[in-house]
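Blinded run. Sample ID left blank on purpose so nobody reads anything into the name before looking at the predicted structure. Input follows.
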Amino acid sequence: CSGLTTFPVLDTSSGTTFDSTWNSCTGLTSFPQIDTSSATNLRSAWRVCTGLTAFPVLNTSNVTDFTATWRQCSGITTFPTIDTSSGTSFQNTWRECTGITTFPVLDTSNGTNFTETWNGCTGITTFPVLDTSSGTNFGAAWQSNSSLTSFPSLDVSNGTNFGSAWNGCGALTSFPALSFSNGTSFGSAWRSCSGITTFPSVNFSNSTNFNRAWDNGFALTTYPANQFDTTGTLVSTAFDAAWSNCALTAQSIENILTSLDTNGAQNITLGISGGSNAAKSTWSTAANTAYNNLITKGWTISFNS
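Blinded prediction complete.
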């Protein structure tokens, strides 16, 4: 339907599923006020409708599945405050909606899946406080939000997957102490967050993977102590390139090494080389002792000499 430029007001009052109904209707510049009061599934309904510049306030109060509903609607600049209170899946919902600069406060309290929800929303500068307390999957949720200058203290306490969640959010200069007590996967979570200078103290007690978590954090100088004293069962590549290309001070490296030594895990890969990370020649006695202990435990560690 790429040639369709207008859409008539049809009787859609009984429609429950609008899966991919207007997918790739790139010629549409506006959309009418249709009756979606019975709708439960809007999966990919307006996906790749790149010509839309605005969207009407439709009745979406019964919709549970918002998967990819407005994905790649890059022309929309302002999104309305629609009723998303029944939504459980928000996977890819606004992915690559690059024109949106301000996101509204929507009711996402029943949402469990936030995988790539706002991935590639490069125009958003600040993010609202949404209710994400039911969310379990935040994989790549805010990836490549390159204009995002701050991030709120969202309730992500039920989240398990945070892989690439903030990957590429290079405009962030700080990060809040979120509740990660149930988190297991943090691979590339803060990769290329090149503006963050200090990372907060958080709970990683169930975590198993931090592969490239802070890689390319060029401004990251300060990392707290005791963060990995207790974790889940670490995978063998748990810290591969985790802090590559950062700017960690000798004290921060001591904090990391001594905590990993306390953890007791064996045969793990750790990367703290590259960037301006403190060279091994400047490490403290405690850092060197922890390093030697880890090598004895079978760790493979890359560092700046």
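Unblinding after everyone has recorded impressions. The beta strands are 269-272, 300-303.
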